[in-house]
């Protein structure tokens, strides 16, 4: 059995080596010739899987180690009897921790001693949005949820969801919708000129969902106007050839890596391994945990003298500080125009190991129950 896989999927040999022969190829430039004699195709979000790629191939199973499926022609696969599996929720916690890190930086910029004073509007309440809401509520934030498809299909939850305009009135707006174009609640350019005009300089807009949810041209124009909001973008229109002018104008710019924690990546591989094993009728004997290495930083300690909010900020940034990725992306955009796409892809391909908060043990000596609860809510391991 031949398994053709994106070369950037982690632990391919560990999970799939005893199932078949593995051929690694570039996900961005994957061609019909690469997959013609494959039985199994494993991709990430950078590969368009459709008739143009697979017509005439031997592929019987397609797996994407990502949560999104807008790069997959699901109808075409179904019509050809090709089994498909995605990894919904695999990196949800990684994206949530990215947003928490951005919120921490924003609270510091606003000179807020208590970050939970910020109101947060979450647009898109799927795996990521729901987990973000749960953690923020446990941390004491006021949260408003906007998800029109869910509001429509869950009439019993009318008090749960608010309109987009209400979500856009919060101090922070965080976007976590899939990209849809031909549906009753299309998200393509959902945040356009009208929505951007309503945002003020007292607000932060975060997009760690899909780049095309925001109208990039309208955003560029809005950021040149008075009273523009701060913007943190992890996803962009026309990746990997993103607009360097927009990179210059946003407050925080990262190269589509919010979900790039090691745990998130490995969990995505594990989920597709399980799906392929079920398809082939094989036992699933491997789990992500057995392949995770010891983290570079394993423990931090706080005493009773620690300020609660400072302690949380320190621990969060010990795991991840978005400013490092921001600096790398801004530097990458300084190369000649025809090299920027490759530079963007290299940042993702060569991304340094980033561990989630669960990899860090936090030792607390004589600290308050409130601080203990906050660390637990974020996902740190505690030693009291």
Characterize the structure shown:
The chain is of the alpha/beta class and 384 residues long. The chain has two domains: 2-86 and 261-291, Rossmann fold (3-Layer(aba) Sandwich); 92-253, NAD(P)-binding Rossmann-like Domain (Rossmann fold, 3-Layer(aba) Sandwich), CATH 3.40.50. The chain has helices spanning 12-16, 32-35, 51-54, 74-79, 92-109, 127-138, 148-153, 164-167, 193-198, 216-222, 244-249, 262-280, 308-319, 322-332, 340-349, 369-378; strands spanning 2-6, 21-25, 40-43, 61-64, 83-85, 119-123, 142-146, 172-175, 204-207, 230-233, 252-253, 299-303, 361-365, 381-383. The strands form three sheets. The protein has a six-stranded parallel β-sheet with strand order 7-6-8-9-10-11. The protein has a five-stranded parallel β-sheet with strand order 2-1-3-4-5. Strand 3, helix 3 and strand 4 (61-64) form a beta-alpha-beta unit. Helix 5 packs across helix 6 and helix 13 packs parallel to helix 16 (369-378). The chain is globular and about 60 Å long.
SSE layout:
Elements: E1 2-6, H1 12-16, E2 21-25, H2 32-35, E3 40-43, H3 51-54, E4 61-64, H4 74-79, E5 83-85, H5 92-109, E6 119-123, H6 127-138, E7 142-146, H7 148-153, H8 164-167, E8 172-175, H9 193-198, E9 204-207, H10 216-222, E10 230-233, H11 244-249, E11 252-253, H12 262-280, E12 299-303, H13 308-319, H14 322-332, H15 340-349, E13 361-365, H16 369-378, E14 381-383
Parallel strand pairs: 1-2, 1-3, 3-4, 4-5, 6-7, 6-8, 8-9, 9-10, 10-11, 12-13, 13-14
Helix pairs in contact: 5-6, 13-16
